[in-house]
Amino acid sequence: MKREKAITLGGLMAAQLLCGSVAAAAENETDDEPNQQSDLEPLLIEGYSRKAFIDDTTLVFKPRTYYLNRDRDTNPDTAGWAVGGALEYKSGWWKDSIRLAATLYTSQKLYGPEDKDGTLLFKPGPDGFSTLGELNITYRFSEDQGVRLGRQRFELPYLGSHDIRMVPNTFEGIAVGNVSPDGFGYMAGYVDKIKRKNDDDFIHMSEAAGAEGSKKGVWFAGARYTANDGPLVSGIYQRTEDVFDTLFVKLEGPLLTEQNFKLKGYVQYTDQRSSGNELIGEFDTSLLSTKLEVSYGNVTWRAAYSTTDDSYGIQKPYGNPSNYLSVIVDDFDRAGEDAWLFGASYNFSRVGVGDLSAFANIVWGDTPDSGVNASPDETEYDLTFDYRIKEGWAERLWVRVRAAYVDQEEAQGGNDFLDFRIILNYDFNLL
Length: 431
Hints:
- This protein is mostly beta strands and 431 residues long.
- The chain has a single domain (8-429), classed as Porin (Beta Barrel).
- Helices cover 2% and strands 52% of the residues.
- It is built from 2 helices and 23 strands.
- The chain has helices at 24-27, 205-208; strands spanning 8-10, 58-72, 78-90, 98-111, 129-142, 145-152, 155-156, 159-160, 170-178, 183-195, 203-204, 218-226, 232-240, 244-258, 261-274, 284-296, 299-308, 338-351, 354-366, 378-388, 398-408, 417-425, 428-429.
């Protein structure tokens, strides 16, 4: 499960082209929903002082356990409890230019009755599984540029790990990008296959998008510019051959900063349309999303709005839905949907032996009442608590407790339900 934090525009090497991380969530200190920011982060290299290939080798074990129970009013319930995690290997830099990396993931069933399948913690069945999700080589061809080939993670808008269960999405492909914490950054590449979060097999990208039997991949190119005083502008274009294209752009920045008070504005736009042979049908749609965020001391308030074109919902078969209103259960990007969000976060700081923080969201989604794209209006209420021990043997232990209640309009065939989750993450170095 991804440490549900905003990843700053989708990952120019958002996904850490040169260093790759298995759980950005556990390394992040901002409690937030995943993919709301969909930011493109620069390609990362772990500093410019690199050790030898063997001396700098790391082997990190990242255990995780995840319990999910979705209690529905009418439809069948889903429930499961999994244990597993990741074993991550990274070599040092050979001749300051080449690095190898691999990650083994596993999700094993502690509890998962057949009549409550569908949690996405396991393969359908439900069955536990293990997979070599990452296996790649990185070549650094200049001081701040590199290329990575093989199985890897990405964190781009609509193309990313979406690490919100036991095992993330991973991909087979090639990507090139640069290191740029500020100023100009870029990333481009080609992705041939995806291994989805509840599977151990890689399939072609077009097949994952719904074009059964096809073998098409995704081309992508993105760039972003971050100014010294904070404003960021970025964009990325993705093409799944003969299936559909996605264009995503974003602008964010501080509007007012005074001592403990901060006001920040966000706006992002998605355009999607079928292309080529239109293997999953003809469509043309868009999503506009905006957000204002006010922080004062330990509390942050936010309000957001999004609107989706009424002709078609947003397609996201490769993970990382990108909307400021994407929350625990729903992404609020159905055809013709107008949605509003109000939320707050609070940092309680030290409580007992650990740090406690919490955030809550309420999202309303209004959709067409009639026509081919009619769907139930719904409201989602979310509450999340995060507790990090940061002391002794449990210094890297992170406990997340989440609850969501989804209230759907019954007249449109809606189904109310309660979603409850407990996630424990931990990691320690074996080498």
